[in-house]
Fold this sequence. Notes:
Number of domains: 1
Largest sheet: none
Number of helices: 7
Order of helices and strands: HHHHHHH
Structural class: mainly alpha
Number of strands: 0
Amino acid sequence: xxxxxxxxxxxxxxxxxxxxxxxxxxxxxxxxxxxxxxxxxxxxxxxxxxxxxxxxxxxxxxxxxxxxxxxxxxxxxxxxxxxxxxxxxxxxxxxxxxxxxxxxxxxxxxxxxxxxxxxxxxxxxxxxxxxxxxxxxxxxxxxxxxxxxxxx
Length: 152
């Protein structure tokens, strides 16, 4: 298993996904018959977990989307990244946005970048939960709690 302690080791990350591409190109029938593409999320999970550790998406919003982008560009089946996003990234983003983003005071640039990047990479279906259950309610609460006489 290839383990990547930080995103700065991008060549290792790309090499780890290229292993699956090489197997696919050399043993395509077996690759498809055994559905080895389904192993990719398990293979990449430790790399993703290491990258998410101590990561604050509000201060570095493109770190994880860059990681996903490098994987997507080196995989013939980038759709296999969706389970990684849904099981690891989406919960982390939900927690960070709900607990760390004050839409009344903080800039929305990081949240918009996160949403736009992952929507582009994985499709709107992947980010619907994030928008519907995290970002939109936070904005609605901010509007409801807004006091125009309070100059911040």
